[in-house]
Protein backbone atom coordinates (compact mmCIF):
# COMPACT_ATOMS: atom_id res chain seq x y z
CA UNK A 1 0.00 0.00 0.00
CA UNK A 2 1.35 3.42 -0.93
CA UNK A 3 2.16 5.50 2.16
CA UNK A 4 2.37 9.28 2.02
CA UNK A 5 3.78 11.68 4.61
CA UNK A 6 3.48 15.44 4.46
CA UNK A 7 5.95 17.65 6.30
CA UNK A 8 3.99 20.86 6.27
CA UNK A 9 4.99 24.47 6.63
CA UNK A 10 8.61 24.06 7.70
CA UNK A 11 11.68 25.86 6.45
CA UNK A 12 13.02 23.48 3.81
CA UNK A 13 16.78 23.67 3.19
CA UNK A 14 18.04 21.68 0.21
CA UNK A 15 21.79 21.97 -0.45
CA UNK A 16 21.32 20.19 -3.78
CA UNK A 17 19.41 23.14 -5.27
CA UNK A 18 20.25 25.87 -2.72
CA UNK A 19 16.53 26.12 -1.98
CA UNK A 20 15.80 27.72 1.40
CA UNK A 21 12.23 28.68 2.15
CA UNK A 22 8.98 27.70 3.81
CA UNK A 23 7.49 24.78 1.92
CA UNK A 24 5.47 21.59 2.10
CA UNK A 25 7.48 18.41 1.47
CA UNK A 26 5.60 15.30 0.34
CA UNK A 27 7.02 11.81 0.77
CA UNK A 28 5.61 8.77 -1.04
CA UNK A 29 6.87 5.22 -0.62
CA UNK A 30 10.21 6.25 0.82
CA UNK A 31 11.06 8.91 -1.77
CA UNK A 32 10.68 12.69 -2.05
CA UNK A 33 7.59 13.13 -4.21
CA UNK A 34 6.90 16.87 -4.30
CA UNK A 35 7.89 20.24 -2.89
CA UNK A 36 5.94 23.48 -3.13
CA UNK A 37 5.55 26.73 -1.19
CA UNK A 38 3.84 26.25 2.14
CA UNK A 39 0.10 26.65 2.46
CA UNK A 40 -1.27 29.43 4.66
CA UNK A 41 -1.19 28.77 8.39
CA UNK A 42 -4.37 27.09 9.74
CA UNK A 43 -7.07 29.15 11.33
CA UNK A 44 -6.57 29.99 14.99
CA UNK A 45 -9.44 27.70 16.03
CA UNK A 46 -7.99 24.65 14.24
CA UNK A 47 -5.12 22.77 15.87
CA UNK A 48 -4.21 20.63 12.85
CA UNK A 49 -2.73 21.90 9.57
CA UNK A 50 -5.01 21.99 6.55
CA UNK A 51 -5.51 18.67 4.73
CA UNK A 52 -7.50 19.45 1.60
CA UNK A 53 -6.12 20.31 -1.81
CA UNK A 54 -8.45 23.31 -1.80
CA UNK A 55 -6.50 24.70 1.13
CA UNK A 56 -3.33 24.50 -0.94
CA UNK A 57 -1.80 21.39 0.60
CA UNK A 58 -1.19 17.83 -0.48
CA UNK A 59 -3.28 14.84 0.49
CA UNK A 60 -1.32 12.52 2.82
CA UNK A 61 -1.80 9.60 5.17
CA UNK A 62 0.32 11.32 7.81
CA UNK A 63 0.66 15.07 8.21
CA UNK A 64 3.35 16.61 10.40
CA UNK A 65 3.13 20.26 11.39
CA UNK A 66 6.70 21.50 10.81
CA UNK A 67 6.09 25.21 11.29
CA UNK A 68 9.07 26.80 13.04
CA UNK A 69 11.31 23.82 12.24
CA UNK A 70 14.01 23.24 9.62
CA UNK A 71 13.64 20.34 7.19
CA UNK A 72 16.77 19.05 5.45
CA UNK A 73 18.42 15.91 4.15
CA UNK A 74 19.55 13.52 6.87
CA UNK A 75 23.25 13.61 7.62
CA UNK A 76 25.56 11.16 5.84
CA UNK A 77 28.41 10.04 8.08
CA UNK A 78 31.31 8.64 6.06
CA UNK A 79 33.23 7.61 9.17
CA UNK A 80 31.26 5.64 11.76
CA UNK A 81 32.52 2.55 13.58
CA UNK A 82 29.46 1.96 15.77
CA UNK A 83 28.16 -1.23 14.04
CA UNK A 84 25.47 -1.48 16.69
CA UNK A 85 21.86 -0.59 17.38
CA UNK A 86 22.84 1.41 20.46
CA UNK A 87 25.40 3.46 18.58
CA UNK A 88 23.15 4.07 15.60
CA UNK A 89 20.36 5.28 17.87
CA UNK A 90 22.71 7.85 19.37
CA UNK A 91 23.64 8.91 15.85
CA UNK A 92 19.95 9.13 14.89
CA UNK A 93 19.44 11.63 17.71
CA UNK A 94 22.34 13.55 16.14
CA UNK A 95 20.51 13.83 12.79
CA UNK A 96 22.35 11.01 10.98
CA UNK A 97 20.39 8.83 8.55
CA UNK A 98 23.30 6.99 6.88
CA UNK A 99 26.29 5.72 8.90
CA UNK A 100 29.16 4.23 6.88
CA UNK A 101 32.45 2.69 8.02
CA UNK A 102 34.79 3.79 5.24
CA UNK A 103 38.06 4.55 7.05
CA UNK A 104 38.62 1.05 8.44
CA UNK A 105 35.97 -1.01 6.67
CA UNK A 106 35.15 -4.57 7.63
CA UNK A 107 36.16 -7.94 6.19
CA UNK A 108 34.71 -10.20 4.94
CA UNK A 109 32.23 -7.68 3.71
CA UNK A 110 29.54 -10.21 2.86
CA UNK A 111 29.46 -11.17 6.55
CA UNK A 112 29.43 -7.50 7.62
CA UNK A 113 26.37 -6.80 5.46
CA UNK A 114 24.65 -10.01 6.59
CA UNK A 115 25.27 -9.35 10.30
CA UNK A 116 23.83 -5.83 10.04
CA UNK A 117 20.81 -7.02 8.06
CA UNK A 118 20.07 -9.90 10.43
CA UNK A 119 20.24 -7.70 13.55
CA UNK A 120 18.40 -4.77 11.97
CA UNK A 121 19.65 -1.21 11.83
CA UNK A 122 17.87 2.09 12.55
CA UNK A 123 20.07 3.83 9.95
CA UNK A 124 21.41 3.01 6.52
CA UNK A 125 24.80 1.31 6.63
CA UNK A 126 27.74 0.34 4.43
CA UNK A 127 31.43 -0.51 4.52
CA UNK A 128 34.68 -0.09 2.68
CA UNK A 129 36.98 -2.96 1.77
CA UNK A 130 39.38 -3.30 4.69
CA UNK A 131 43.05 -2.77 3.81
CA UNK A 132 43.89 -3.73 7.38
CA UNK A 133 41.82 -6.91 7.20
CA UNK A 134 43.34 -7.95 3.87
CA UNK A 135 46.88 -7.39 5.17
CA UNK A 136 46.00 -9.20 8.40
CA UNK A 137 44.84 -12.28 6.53
CA UNK A 138 47.87 -12.48 4.24
CA UNK A 139 50.65 -11.30 6.56
CA UNK A 140 49.56 -12.97 9.83
CA UNK A 141 47.37 -15.84 8.66
CA UNK A 142 44.52 -14.63 10.88
CA UNK A 143 41.20 -14.37 9.09
CA UNK A 144 39.22 -11.19 9.95
CA UNK A 145 35.82 -11.72 11.57
CA UNK A 146 33.96 -8.65 10.25
CA UNK A 147 33.97 -7.01 13.69
CA UNK A 148 35.54 -3.81 14.99
CA UNK A 149 36.75 -5.62 18.11
CA UNK A 150 38.68 -8.07 15.98
CA UNK A 151 40.17 -5.27 13.89
CA UNK A 152 41.25 -3.32 16.98
CA UNK A 153 42.87 -6.39 18.55
CA UNK A 154 45.29 -6.87 15.66
CA UNK A 155 46.43 -3.25 15.38
CA UNK A 156 49.38 -3.71 17.74
CA UNK A 157 50.63 -6.88 16.01
CA UNK A 158 54.03 -6.09 14.42
CA UNK A 159 53.56 -8.88 11.85
CA UNK A 160 50.62 -6.94 10.43
CA UNK A 161 52.65 -3.70 10.30
CA UNK A 162 55.57 -4.97 8.21
CA UNK A 163 56.28 -4.53 4.51
CA UNK A 164 54.77 -7.05 2.10
CA UNK A 165 56.73 -9.21 -0.28
CA UNK A 166 55.69 -8.84 -3.94
CA UNK A 167 53.67 -12.04 -3.67
CA UNK A 168 51.98 -10.94 -0.45
CA UNK A 169 51.15 -7.56 -1.99
CA UNK A 170 49.47 -9.25 -4.95
CA UNK A 171 47.58 -11.57 -2.59
CA UNK A 172 46.04 -8.89 -0.41
CA UNK A 173 45.29 -6.65 -3.38
CA UNK A 174 43.33 -9.59 -4.82
CA UNK A 175 41.40 -9.82 -1.55
CA UNK A 176 40.53 -6.13 -1.78
CA UNK A 177 39.45 -6.60 -5.39
CA UNK A 178 37.10 -9.39 -4.30
CA UNK A 179 35.65 -7.23 -1.53
CA UNK A 180 34.97 -4.42 -4.01
CA UNK A 181 33.11 -6.88 -6.17
CA UNK A 182 30.99 -7.86 -3.16
CA UNK A 183 29.70 -4.33 -2.58
CA UNK A 184 32.44 -2.42 -0.75
CA UNK A 185 32.07 1.35 -1.20
CA UNK A 186 35.80 1.98 -1.54
CA UNK A 187 39.02 0.97 0.20
CA UNK A 188 39.63 1.94 3.83
CA UNK A 189 43.32 2.35 4.64
CA UNK A 190 44.62 2.62 8.23
CA UNK A 191 48.06 3.73 7.07
CA UNK A 192 48.74 5.49 10.36
CA UNK A 193 48.65 2.12 12.14
CA UNK A 194 51.42 0.67 9.95
CA UNK A 195 53.42 3.87 9.47
CA UNK A 196 56.74 2.39 8.30
CA UNK A 197 55.43 0.40 5.34
CA UNK A 198 56.77 1.06 1.85
CA UNK A 199 54.88 3.89 0.10
CA UNK A 200 54.88 1.73 -3.03
CA UNK A 201 52.16 -0.34 -1.38
CA UNK A 202 49.93 2.69 -0.86
CA UNK A 203 50.28 3.65 -4.52
CA UNK A 204 49.27 0.13 -5.48
CA UNK A 205 46.07 0.52 -3.47
CA UNK A 206 45.35 3.84 -5.17
CA UNK A 207 45.85 2.28 -8.62
CA UNK A 208 43.41 -0.50 -7.72
CA UNK A 209 40.84 2.06 -6.56
CA UNK A 210 41.26 4.10 -9.74
CA UNK A 211 40.68 0.99 -11.86
CA UNK A 212 37.56 0.11 -9.86
CA UNK A 213 36.23 3.69 -9.81
CA UNK A 214 35.99 3.87 -6.01
CA UNK A 215 37.49 6.24 -3.41
CA UNK A 216 40.27 5.49 -0.93
CA UNK A 217 39.54 6.59 2.66
CA UNK A 218 42.79 7.04 4.55
CA UNK A 219 43.98 7.54 8.10
CA UNK A 220 47.32 8.96 6.97
CA UNK A 221 50.71 8.09 8.41
CA UNK A 222 52.66 10.61 10.49
CA UNK A 223 53.49 14.08 9.25
CA UNK A 224 57.11 14.96 8.63
CA UNK A 225 56.99 17.66 11.31
CA UNK A 226 56.22 14.97 13.90
CA UNK A 227 58.46 12.20 12.55
CA UNK A 228 61.24 13.40 10.23
CA UNK A 229 62.19 9.76 9.61
CA UNK A 230 58.77 8.82 8.20
CA UNK A 231 59.04 7.13 4.78
CA UNK A 232 56.86 9.95 3.41
CA UNK A 233 54.78 12.73 4.93
CA UNK A 234 51.31 11.28 5.41
CA UNK A 235 49.27 14.04 3.80
CA UNK A 236 51.76 14.47 0.95
CA UNK A 237 51.50 10.74 0.27
CA UNK A 238 47.75 11.00 -0.13
CA UNK A 239 47.95 13.99 -2.47
CA UNK A 240 50.67 12.33 -4.52
CA UNK A 241 48.59 9.18 -4.93
CA UNK A 242 45.66 11.22 -6.24
CA UNK A 243 47.88 13.04 -8.74
CA UNK A 244 49.69 9.93 -9.97
CA UNK A 245 46.75 7.51 -10.22
CA UNK A 246 43.65 9.67 -10.58
CA UNK A 247 42.01 7.88 -7.66
CA UNK A 248 39.66 9.86 -5.43
CA UNK A 249 41.62 10.15 -2.17
CA UNK A 250 39.70 11.08 0.98
CA UNK A 251 41.63 12.34 4.03
CA UNK A 252 39.97 11.11 7.21
CA UNK A 253 39.77 13.30 10.36
CA UNK A 254 42.28 15.92 9.25
CA UNK A 255 41.94 17.56 12.66
CA UNK A 256 43.31 14.63 14.65
CA UNK A 257 46.08 13.52 12.28
CA UNK A 258 47.28 17.07 11.57
CA UNK A 259 46.79 18.52 15.06
CA UNK A 260 48.93 21.69 15.36
CA UNK A 261 50.06 21.43 11.73
CA UNK A 262 46.57 21.60 10.24
CA UNK A 263 47.20 24.90 8.42
CA UNK A 264 50.07 23.40 6.41
CA UNK A 265 48.02 20.31 5.56
CA UNK A 266 44.99 22.32 4.47
CA UNK A 267 47.17 24.52 2.26
CA UNK A 268 48.55 21.35 0.67
CA UNK A 269 45.02 20.25 -0.12
CA UNK A 270 44.15 23.65 -1.55
CA UNK A 271 47.04 23.38 -4.00
CA UNK A 272 46.12 19.84 -4.96
CA UNK A 273 42.51 20.77 -5.65
CA UNK A 274 43.54 23.81 -7.71
CA UNK A 275 45.70 21.48 -9.79
CA UNK A 276 42.74 19.19 -10.39
CA UNK A 277 43.53 16.31 -8.04
CA UNK A 278 40.46 14.45 -6.73
CA UNK A 279 41.00 14.90 -2.98
CA UNK A 280 38.47 15.52 -0.21
CA UNK A 281 38.77 16.04 3.52
CA UNK A 282 36.71 15.56 6.68
CA UNK A 283 36.91 16.73 10.30
CA UNK A 284 35.12 16.35 13.62
CA UNK A 285 34.68 19.12 16.23
CA UNK A 286 36.54 17.61 19.20
CA UNK A 287 40.04 18.01 20.60
CA UNK A 288 40.34 14.34 21.57
CA UNK A 289 40.37 11.20 19.46
CA UNK A 290 39.69 7.54 20.20
CA UNK A 291 41.32 4.30 19.09
CA UNK A 292 42.90 1.08 20.39
CA UNK A 293 45.64 1.58 22.95
CA UNK A 294 47.97 -0.67 20.95
CA UNK A 295 48.06 1.74 17.99
CA UNK A 296 51.58 2.46 16.73
CA UNK A 297 51.24 6.19 17.33
CA UNK A 298 50.50 5.65 21.04
CA UNK A 299 53.95 4.33 21.87
CA UNK A 300 55.38 6.52 24.65
CA UNK A 301 58.21 7.86 22.46
CA UNK A 302 55.82 8.69 19.63
CA UNK A 303 53.44 10.48 21.98
CA UNK A 304 56.31 12.73 23.02
CA UNK A 305 56.80 13.83 19.40
CA UNK A 306 53.17 15.02 19.47
CA UNK A 307 53.92 17.08 22.58
CA UNK A 308 51.75 14.68 24.60
CA UNK A 309 52.37 12.42 27.59
CA UNK A 310 50.85 9.10 28.73
CA UNK A 311 48.45 11.13 30.87
CA UNK A 312 46.87 12.31 27.61
CA UNK A 313 45.49 8.75 27.24
CA UNK A 314 42.32 7.61 29.07
CA UNK A 315 40.96 4.05 28.94
CA UNK A 316 37.32 3.89 27.85
CA UNK A 317 36.44 0.75 29.77
CA UNK A 318 37.64 1.82 33.21
CA UNK A 319 38.10 5.57 32.85
CA UNK A 320 41.72 5.17 33.99
CA UNK A 321 44.01 8.03 33.03
CA UNK A 322 47.38 6.44 32.23
CA UNK A 323 49.86 7.50 34.90
CA UNK A 324 53.21 7.13 33.17
CA UNK A 325 55.16 5.46 30.35
CA UNK A 326 55.60 2.19 32.25
CA UNK A 327 51.84 1.85 32.76
CA UNK A 328 51.19 2.67 29.09
CA UNK A 329 53.61 -0.07 27.99
CA UNK A 330 51.92 -2.51 30.37
CA UNK A 331 48.45 -1.72 29.01
CA UNK A 332 49.59 -1.95 25.39
CA UNK A 333 51.06 -5.39 26.01
CA UNK A 334 48.16 -6.71 28.07
CA UNK A 335 45.24 -5.70 25.84
CA UNK A 336 46.32 -3.84 22.69
CA UNK A 337 42.73 -3.71 21.44
CA UNK A 338 41.41 -1.83 24.48
CA UNK A 339 39.66 1.38 23.35
CA UNK A 340 40.93 4.66 24.73
CA UNK A 341 40.66 8.44 24.32
CA UNK A 342 43.65 10.62 23.35
CA UNK A 343 43.56 14.32 24.22
CA UNK A 344 45.49 16.02 21.40
CA UNK A 345 44.14 19.58 21.70
CA UNK A 346 42.96 21.48 24.75
CA UNK A 347 39.31 22.42 24.23
CA UNK A 348 39.65 25.05 26.98
CA UNK A 349 42.45 26.87 25.11
CA UNK A 350 41.17 29.47 22.60
CA UNK A 351 44.21 28.94 20.36
CA UNK A 352 43.58 25.19 20.20
CA UNK A 353 39.88 25.77 19.58
CA UNK A 354 40.79 28.06 16.69
CA UNK A 355 42.90 25.27 15.16
CA UNK A 356 40.00 22.89 15.48
CA UNK A 357 37.56 25.31 13.87
CA UNK A 358 39.89 25.94 10.94
CA UNK A 359 39.55 22.29 9.97
CA UNK A 360 35.75 22.74 9.91
CA UNK A 361 35.85 26.12 8.15
CA UNK A 362 38.08 24.90 5.33
CA UNK A 363 36.17 25.12 2.02
CA UNK A 364 34.36 21.85 1.26
CA UNK A 365 35.56 20.19 4.47
CA UNK A 366 32.92 17.65 5.50
CA UNK A 367 31.69 16.70 8.95
CA UNK A 368 32.32 13.05 9.88
CA UNK A 369 32.17 11.58 13.36
CA UNK A 370 34.62 8.69 13.72
CA UNK A 371 31.88 7.36 16.03
CA UNK A 372 32.89 4.48 18.30
CA UNK A 373 30.83 1.67 19.87
CA UNK A 374 29.31 1.99 23.32
CA UNK A 375 30.83 -0.25 26.01
CA UNK A 376 29.42 -1.19 29.40
CA UNK A 377 31.29 -2.52 32.43
CA UNK A 378 29.76 -5.98 32.03
CA UNK A 379 31.39 -6.32 28.59
CA UNK A 380 28.23 -5.59 26.60
CA UNK A 381 28.62 -3.44 23.49
CA UNK A 382 25.04 -3.33 22.23
CA UNK A 383 21.47 -3.26 23.48
CA UNK A 384 17.96 -2.83 22.13
CA UNK A 385 16.95 -1.00 25.32
CA UNK A 386 16.08 2.68 25.02
CA UNK A 387 16.94 4.92 26.75
CA UNK A 388 20.36 3.32 26.93
CA UNK A 389 21.29 1.66 30.22
CA UNK A 390 23.43 3.89 32.45
CA UNK A 391 27.20 3.59 32.54
CA UNK A 392 27.85 3.33 28.81
CA UNK A 393 31.29 4.50 27.71
CA UNK A 394 32.26 5.87 24.34
CA UNK A 395 33.68 9.03 22.82
CA UNK A 396 31.12 11.89 22.93
CA UNK A 397 31.54 12.29 19.16
CA UNK A 398 29.38 9.14 18.79
CA UNK A 399 26.37 11.05 20.14
CA UNK A 400 27.19 14.65 19.36
CA UNK A 401 29.38 15.32 16.31
CA UNK A 402 26.83 16.82 13.93
CA UNK A 403 24.84 18.76 16.51
CA UNK A 404 28.08 20.11 17.97
CA UNK A 405 29.26 21.25 14.53
CA UNK A 406 25.94 23.03 13.96
CA UNK A 407 25.98 24.59 17.42
CA UNK A 408 29.51 25.90 16.94
CA UNK A 409 29.37 26.93 13.29
CA UNK A 410 25.73 28.01 12.79
CA UNK A 411 24.17 28.95 16.11
CA UNK A 412 27.13 30.44 18.00
CA UNK A 413 29.52 31.78 15.36
CA UNK A 414 27.39 32.26 12.26
CA UNK A 415 30.26 30.85 10.18
CA UNK A 416 27.88 28.61 8.20
CA UNK A 417 24.43 29.29 6.83
CA UNK A 418 21.92 26.50 7.25
CA UNK A 419 22.41 25.62 3.59
CA UNK A 420 26.14 25.35 4.17
CA UNK A 421 25.59 23.18 7.25
CA UNK A 422 23.47 20.69 5.30
CA UNK A 423 25.94 20.84 2.43
CA UNK A 424 28.83 19.79 4.69
CA UNK A 425 26.86 17.28 6.77
CA UNK A 426 24.79 15.62 4.02
CA UNK A 427 25.31 16.75 0.43
CA UNK A 428 29.11 16.66 0.08
CA UNK A 429 29.55 13.33 1.90
CA UNK A 430 27.00 11.66 -0.36
CA UNK A 431 28.72 13.06 -3.46
CA UNK A 432 31.96 11.30 -2.49
CA UNK A 433 30.14 8.05 -3.28
CA UNK A 434 28.32 9.05 -6.48
CA UNK A 435 30.67 7.13 -8.80
CA UNK A 436 31.15 4.10 -6.59
CA UNK A 437 27.49 3.63 -5.66
CA UNK A 438 24.85 5.13 -7.96
CA UNK A 439 22.28 4.74 -5.16
CA UNK A 440 24.19 7.44 -3.26
CA UNK A 441 22.99 9.97 -5.84
CA UNK A 442 19.58 9.83 -4.13
CA UNK A 443 21.05 10.84 -0.77
CA UNK A 444 22.16 14.12 0.76
CA UNK A 445 19.53 16.30 -0.96
CA UNK A 446 15.76 16.74 -1.24
CA UNK A 447 15.30 16.58 -5.00
CA UNK A 448 12.27 14.81 -6.47
CA UNK A 449 12.97 11.08 -6.37
CA UNK A 450 15.61 11.37 -3.65
CA UNK A 451 15.51 8.89 -0.80
CA UNK A 452 13.33 10.20 2.02
CA UNK A 453 16.19 10.29 4.51
CA UNK A 454 15.11 13.48 6.24
CA UNK A 455 15.87 15.31 9.46
CA UNK A 456 13.57 17.93 10.98
CA UNK A 457 15.37 20.20 13.46
CA UNK A 458 14.40 22.80 16.00
CA UNK A 459 16.89 25.54 14.97
CA UNK A 460 16.87 27.16 18.39
CA UNK A 461 17.69 24.07 20.42
CA UNK A 462 19.84 21.79 18.26
CA UNK A 463 22.98 21.09 20.29
CA UNK A 464 25.22 18.32 21.52
CA UNK A 465 24.77 17.17 25.11
CA UNK A 466 27.29 14.31 25.33
CA UNK A 467 30.45 15.03 27.32
CA UNK A 468 33.60 13.08 28.11
CA UNK A 469 32.10 12.18 31.50
CA UNK A 470 28.56 11.58 30.19
CA UNK A 471 29.22 10.41 26.62
CA UNK A 472 25.93 8.66 25.83
CA UNK A 473 23.65 11.62 26.42
CA UNK A 474 21.67 12.09 23.17
CA UNK A 475 21.81 15.38 21.31
CA UNK A 476 18.92 17.83 21.48
CA UNK A 477 16.89 19.41 18.71
CA UNK A 478 16.01 16.55 16.34
CA UNK A 479 12.21 16.58 16.32
CA UNK A 480 11.71 14.07 13.51
CA UNK A 481 14.02 11.72 11.62
CA UNK A 482 12.95 9.58 8.69
CA UNK A 483 15.02 6.85 7.06
CA UNK A 484 13.63 5.67 3.74
CA UNK A 485 10.37 7.43 4.59
CA UNK A 486 9.95 5.65 7.95
CA UNK A 487 10.05 7.53 11.24
CA UNK A 488 12.94 6.66 13.52
CA UNK A 489 12.32 9.76 15.67
CA UNK A 490 8.90 11.40 15.89
CA UNK A 491 7.99 14.38 18.03
CA UNK A 492 11.40 14.22 19.64
CA UNK A 493 11.02 10.57 20.73
CA UNK A 494 13.08 7.71 19.34
CA UNK A 495 10.91 4.81 18.16
CA UNK A 496 12.53 1.66 19.53
CA UNK A 497 10.68 -0.61 17.08
CA UNK A 498 12.03 1.20 13.99
CA UNK A 499 14.72 -0.60 11.99
CA UNK A 500 14.35 0.81 8.47
CA UNK A 501 18.09 0.99 7.68
CA UNK A 502 19.17 -0.46 4.33
CA UNK A 503 22.58 -1.42 2.96
CA UNK A 504 24.41 1.07 0.75
CA UNK A 505 26.74 -0.78 -1.59
CA UNK A 506 28.22 -0.64 -5.06
CA UNK A 507 26.23 -1.80 -8.05
Please describe what this structure looks like.
It is built from 15 helices and 21 strands. Mean pLDDT is 93; it is low at 43-47 and 49-55. The strands form four sheets. Strands 1, 2, 3, 4, 5, 18, 19, 20 and 21 form a nine-stranded mixed beta sheet that branches. The chain has helices at residues 85-92, 109-119, 131-140, 148-154, 158-161, 166-181, 199-212, 234-245, 254-258, 262-274, 300-305, 325-334, 350-361, 397-412, 418-432, and strands at residues 4-14, 19-28, 31-37, 62-65, 70-73, 75-77, 96-101, 124-127, 129-130, 187-189, 216-218, 249-251, 279-283, 288-292, 313-315, 339-343, 366-367, 454-457, 478-483, 486-490, 493-494. It is of the alpha/beta class and 507 residues long.
Q: Which features would summarize this protein structure in a list?
A:
single chain; 507 residues; alpha/beta; nine-stranded mixed beta sheet; six-stranded parallel beta sheet; 31% helix; 19% strand
Summarize this, please?
The protein has helices at 85-92, 109-119, 131-140, 148-154, 158-161, 166-181, 199-212, 234-245, 254-258, 262-274, 300-305, 325-334, 350-361, 397-412, 418-432; strands spanning 4-14, 19-28, 31-37, 62-65, 70-73, 75-77, 96-101, 124-127, 129-130, 187-189, 216-218, 249-251, 279-283, 288-292, 313-315, 339-343, 366-367, 454-457, 478-483, 486-490, 493-494. It has 507 residues and is an alpha/beta fold. The strands form four sheets. Strands 1, 2, 3, 4, 5, 18, 19, 20 and 21 form a nine-stranded mixed beta sheet that branches. A six-stranded parallel beta sheet has the order 9-10-11-12-13-17.
Amino acid sequence: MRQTILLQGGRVVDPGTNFDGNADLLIEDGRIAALRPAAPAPAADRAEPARSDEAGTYQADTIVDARGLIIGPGFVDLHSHVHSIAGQRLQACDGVTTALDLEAGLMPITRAFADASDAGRPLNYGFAASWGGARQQVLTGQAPDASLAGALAVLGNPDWQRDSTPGELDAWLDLLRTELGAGALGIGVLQGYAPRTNPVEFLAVARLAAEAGVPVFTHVRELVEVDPSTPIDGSTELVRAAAETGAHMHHCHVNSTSRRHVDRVLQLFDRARREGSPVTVEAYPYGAGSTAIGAAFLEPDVLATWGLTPRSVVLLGSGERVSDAARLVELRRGDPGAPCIIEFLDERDPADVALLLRALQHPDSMVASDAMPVYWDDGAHDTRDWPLPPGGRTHPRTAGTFSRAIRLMVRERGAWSWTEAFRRCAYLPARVLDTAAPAARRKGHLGIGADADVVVLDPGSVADRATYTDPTRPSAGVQHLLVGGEFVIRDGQLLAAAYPGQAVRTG
